[in-house]
Amino acid sequence: MALKHPRTAGDGSRDLEVNPVFSREPLTIPRYALPAGELDPGTAYQVVHDELMLDGNARLNLATFVSTWAEPEAVRLMAECAEKNMIDKDEYPRTAELEMRCVHMLARLWHAEDPRRTVGCSTTGSSEAAMLGGLALKRRWQARRRAAGEPADRPNLVMGVNVQICWEKFANYFEVEPRYVPMEGDRYHLGAREAVELCDENTIGVVAVLGSTFDGSYEPVAEIASALDDLEQNTGLDVPIHVDGASGAMVAPFLDPGLHWDFRLPRVASINTSGHKYGLVMPGVGWALWRDEDALPDDLVFHVNYLGGDMPTFALNFSRPGAQVVAQYYNFLRLGFDGYRRVQQTCRDVATRLASEIGRLGPFETLTDGSDIPVFAFRVREDVRNFTVFDVSAALRESGWLVPAYTFPENRTDLAVLRVVVRNGFGHDLADLFLDDLRRVLRRLGSQREPQRGADDATGFAHGAEPKKTRPGKT
Ligand SMILES: Cc1ncc(COP(=O)(O)O)c(C=O)c1O
Q1: What angle, 0 to 180 degrees and rounded to 10, lies between the N-to-C axes of helices 323-360 and 72-80?
Q2: Which of 10, 278, 444, 459 gets the most CB atoms within 10 Å of its CB?
Q3: Which domains does the chain have, with CATH numbers?
Q4: pTM of the model
Q5: How remote is the CA of residue 463 from the centroid of ligand 1, in Å?
Q6: Contacts of 338 (CB under 8 A, 6+ apart)
Q7: Residue to substitute in 166, 215, 219 for testing ligand 1 pocket (most ligand atoms within 8 angstroms of CB)
Q8: Residues lining ligand 1, judged by CB closer than 6 Å?
Q9: What is the distance in angstroms between the CA of the first residue and the CA of the last residue of the chain?
Q10: Residue 351 and residue 474: Cα distance in Å, rounded?
Q11: What pLDDT, in 10s, does the model give residues 300-321?
């Protein structure tokens, strides 16, 4: 945690050393205390720059879903907009307009019945968008229950145990009981029947994930919707769906146009995505969209002054950079539908080829093949007893590759996997280099007598694919 340091100033920690080339400056500066005086900007820049060189190489980071590269023109626009605050709609009306255009484009991409009635906003990422989506579900359910004279104090949300940690946060922060459907056998994500079994009159909604963080698989949104239709017919319970399309909502429209997962399904009330994942913007932007005004209760919306008029906003933060929203609009203009399709298809091609090559190496078994979102998980075969996925992850790190290893949640805690996320910029050439390194690592690990690392050595960079703190099922 960033707030804690193993050693603090005054108890023997070493100061930061400044290269003696900058001899006009002090040669040391405190590490954890605000320096008493000023530094020349060039020196301050160099000190910070040099330290950051020790960060991992973003291009070799196969753990993150978040964009690690942008075109120079996008970077230039971001720098031009660095000082613009997204909330100041009155001062920056054009930025506000570009945000609205992005919302409209997404509404059409996700087949909103009447895109002019679709409401939406940018956020800092999918986590904030998930909080907003969850809050809208909770408010709608409360309003319905109160109107019917029913108690509205025990809301629950049904989802697969594989949901990203943001949904666990939502449940915790906004006091909603999380009802996790556990994994079972080869089912590593939410099943339709299992979701419906956990629903009752206190269920505010079901979260369906398009592109599970654990293995990249799409959850069967249409099947879940149809099972919930049956539930409504049989019991009168009307349970809406929120689709967490953090990754998949920017992949499926381009590569799987026939897949019904979006507003084409009347039960889908809202959708979120991360602009900074397969939306191809660098970190700091997500999107949340609601089918229509009815899906977003008005009492959650705040009204700010916009050109003397009224601008509705729904956000957890107040101030937020406008640069990422501008970069999103740039990407939409620059790539268009066809450009996005080519980028995502290339990622899928690289992912499926890499998954299949890894499957052929011998000691591994793939759980997914990268053909949903371009992400796949693989395990060490059961008959391999002298090394673990945790050994493989640690060994790959020696060559700079960041490949997370983690254990699956209930009821497959016996299963430990490695996961590869293929993003724009990780092409066939890098995939080949990765395979070379993996083969090299295997030669060494194959000759070790016994595993060196276990689940306690799980990498800290699984991007929210961690075991849940809360137990699944009804509480
Ligand atoms: C399915 C899913 N939902 C939500 C998130 C959180 O997204 P963000 O990092 O944009 O907050 C992630 C991140 O990996 C994810 O995979």
Answers
A1: 150
A2: 278
A3: 1-55 (no CATH), 72-331 (3.40.640.10), 342-467 (3.90.1150.160)
A4: 0.91
A5: 8
A6: none
A7: 166
A8: 65, 125-127, 130, 164, 166, 209, 211, 213, 244, 246-247, 274, 286, 463-464
A9: 30
A10: 37
A11: 998 877 666 667 789 998 899 9
